[in-house]
Amino acid sequence: MSDTLTMQKPDAISGCGDLPVLRERGQREVFCGLTGIVWLHRKIQDAFFLIVGSRTCAHLMQSAAGVMIFAEPRFATAIIEERDLAGLADAHDELDRIVAQLLDRRPDIKLLFLVGSCPSEVIKLDLSRAASRLSRTYSPSVRILNYSGSGIETTFTQGEDACLAALVPSLPASPQGCPASLLVVGALPEVVEDQFSRIFDDLGIDVRFFPPRHAAELPPVGPNTRMLLAQPFLAETARLIEDRGATLLVAPFPFGVDGTTAWLQVAATAFGVDPLAFRRATEPGRERARRALQRYRCQLWGKKIFFFPDSQLEIPLARFLSRELSMELVEVGTPYLHRQHLKAELALLPAGTLISEGQDVDRQLDRCRAAKPDIVVCGLGLANPLEAEGMTTKWSIELVFSPIHGYDQAGDLAELFVRPLSRRARLVA
Amino acid sequence: MRLTVWTYEGPPHVGAMRIATAMEGVHYVLHAPQGDTYADLLFTMIERRAKRPPVTYTTFQARDLGSDTAALFKTAVEDAYARFQPTAMIVGASCTGELIQDDPGGLARALNLPIPVIPLDLPSYQRKENWGASETFYQLVRTLAGSSAPSGSKPPRRPEGLPARCNILGPSALGFRHRDDVEEITRLLGRLGIVVNVVAPLGATAADLARLSEADFNVVLYPEIAATTAKWLERTFGQPATKTIPIGVGATRDFISEVAALAGVDPAPLLAGDETRLPWYSRSVDSTYLTGKRVFIFGDATHAIAAARIAAQELGFEVVGLGTYAREFAREVREAAKLYDIEALITDDYLEVEARVAELRPELVLGTQMERHIAKRLGIGCAVISAPVHVQDFPARYSPQMGFEGANVIFDSWVHPLMMGLEEHLLAMFRDDPEFHDGATPSHLGTTTELEQVPAPATVQTEKAAVLWSSEAEKEVGKIPFFVRGKARRNTERFAADTGVALITVETLYDAKAHFGR
């Protein structure tokens, strides 16, 4: 650990509690916020995402979506061309024309997001003006909102934050004086959402999820709302929901047995659930998850893991891997560190864990090679080159696309880290 | 603005990356925001390259825009030079970098690096990937080969008795079968006694580009990438370039004659050989059933035009559609389409291509990865003949498209998606039997309906074991992806039977999941 630290200028290191945080501002090797559309468009089933950007944005989307070429996906790009740049005046007319074309083709769309990109931000194309103008035209059948998924403002999962933040003003106000209810915030796979729903039902907690599966099912929010974040990257969304009067419940994130229990416990405490009832409702899940994890414990025990920054899930996952599977954390990179939302998580990391915020990819690769971890969590651009150097890698994007939250996914989550290790063991054996 | 769902080509700076990544010792500094780094995965994931592309992105952020993005660019160039020690560097901007007008070329020049630094001006809002690749290759060659001989002078003719030398131009990173085409064509040229001077850009160094003028002529394999460069080499060094693309038996034979004439050697011995199985396989009786198969062809111009010739003349298909997404080569494709009495489809709108395929109802689609998806949806057989590519277009085995072995590969890969001759005959005979019906696809191809039926044996087991599913559990199991659903169902039933559970609930389902692991 001291070796890796001395490679950096000492002024780049600052503390976060007793955890050293290395701040880097060099080349980043991370997706932009547009990528969030890949999972958001599947989550909100009647929403369409129209990126206002360049050919690069369109190419990114289909490359990030990989082989998932759908007949006609619920996202597309309005590609800015030379003549749009020549005179900004008609960019809005052009956008109106494209939205008309799109909505004519897709009458099933109830919610349309105009998604800003790097080029649209740089030329200062005002998408909020466009969204309110178009909303007037298409209301009430289609709601039109805007947010920025640009890489100059958002990193990967921050795109979801920006999208949900854009939806918050549309949430209805909950009626005055109605009983407290729980709002779980962050896109979750349906199967996970249903599992959590059942547990909250057993706890007698009235729960709603945000984002909803359909545009018309927006949950109400108000002073009686208790908000529990399901994802660690929702800074702006949480702030706006708090502005609507909701109370944020700070908890560890629901990964692994302990994380899930702690997350549920924070909600249970806020709603005054009887401890015995809590144990009854969570014990079967806890027990199953413990058994599922048991299978992988010896395979991950003592293994050194290195996280490149990607999704902001790194810190909660590192906590899960170190506390529940006894992995050794070499470096935990995160694109952005939200100290308040991650307060409970940071407290659970082993003392001295090196956290790096931001990135300078070449220097980070140097540190990674020097540390010789057993497994490296990194993006798709780095995985094969590192494998070719003899390292074992796990694509971080799979952690975003797979159901990993909650008791019944704890084993699956551990298995995601076991698989590359056991594969390598098989191939060299 | 243009509404785009899927794109055939990336932006022009991705074309530049294809050249830089193909070469050795060339580094590309790109003024671009962080999102543009996605392009690395094209090379590391799709092409399975073991090294990161030699690209440094400045990854400027919104907060940098107000301050000094130009300083950020200069630092990135200096750091990249110090770390990677390239022998030549290209510098430029992506679409967003272009808008902030920092002049990467001027900034890099001001650093006075002791290596050639070539500025690229790739207009992102007008041009696309192939154009970007072509322009990058041209600028690199102009700078690096131009300095090796004064412009306009011709190199001395080769002395009598020495073999003719040629360059192979066009193969790049992320190209459709470029790796194997180069090997096949190099071998073919070798058998004619022609020496390959330089292959570029694939595998070439800056020093190799400086030696381009030493060849007698150029072999242009992919005009999309190398035509501009070849024209310049012809003007500057008097090197003629080949025009024939050796894809298919006829085209390969024409190519042999063309290079033999350029090299002053006799093609007859090579042409007399029985080099490829395609002509015989095509004449053998099983292939009778290929006669008049309606085929739709779409891709880059080079591969589409070549495919149409093979389809019509060498396999006896009927070409019902021919098109390209490459507007730069629209004229050539229109000319080719006339040979088959059809109107060429020139578009980069994927939905338009899909509509045309649906309308023409071909029996085989020869296209790109995009057409593969169209064909899959419409239930039509398909073979990929052109970029854009996906991971499966980089097979582990030797699999060229060019030359005689390329013709063998093409016969196999185009005929495979079709009904085999005897099988089609039998299907027609037994059309009304329950096993055979009009909707049946060839037995050697998997179908989605078969996959969907995988859980079927489990239902039988359920009846035998008399284990019941609660409706909630039934619903829950339905949320599991279909390709693992059968296994989940069987495991749960086995678990229920082993533990004496009579009614499977959602709890049982997850208990079983925990018990069996994945």
Automatic annotation (TrEMBL), chain B:
Residues 469-513 form the Light-independent protochlorophyllide reductase subunit B-like C-terminal domain. The keyword Nuclease does not apply. [4Fe-4S] cluster binds at D36. Protochlorophyllide reductase is composed of three subunits; BchL, BchN and BchB. Forms a heterotetramer of two BchB and two BchN subunits. Keywords: 4Fe-4S, ATP-binding, Bacteriochlorophyll biosynthesis, Chlorophyll biosynthesis, Iron, Iron-sulfur, Metal-binding, Nucleotide-binding, Oxidoreductase, Photosynthesis. Residues 12-418 form the Nitrogenase/oxidoreductase component domain. Binds 1 [4Fe-4S] cluster per heterodimer. The cluster is bound at the heterodimer interface by residues from both subunits. The gene is bchB. This is Light-independent protochlorophyllide reductase subunit B. Pfam families: Oxidored_nitro, PCP_red. HAMAP family: ChlB_BchB. Pathway: Porphyrin-containing compound metabolism; bacteriochlorophyll biosynthesis (light-independent). Component of the dark-operative protochlorophyllide reductase (DPOR) that uses Mg-ATP and reduced ferredoxin to reduce ring D of protochlorophyllide (Pchlide) to form chlorophyllide a (Chlide). This reaction is light-independent. The NB-protein (BchN-BchB) is the catalytic component of the complex. It is an enzyme of class 1 (oxidoreductase). The active site is at D286 (proton donor). One of its GO terms (molecular function) is metal ion binding. Its cofactor is [4Fe-4S] cluster. GO terms for biological process: light-independent bacteriochlorophyll biosynthetic process; photosynthesis, dark reaction. It comes from Lichenifustis flavocetrariae. Its EC number is 1.3.7.7. Belongs to the ChlB/BchB/BchZ family. It catalyses: chlorophyllide a + oxidized 2[4Fe-4S]-[ferredoxin] + 2 ADP + 2 phosphate = protochlorophyllide a + reduced 2[4Fe-4S]-[ferredoxin] + 2 ATP + 2 H2O.
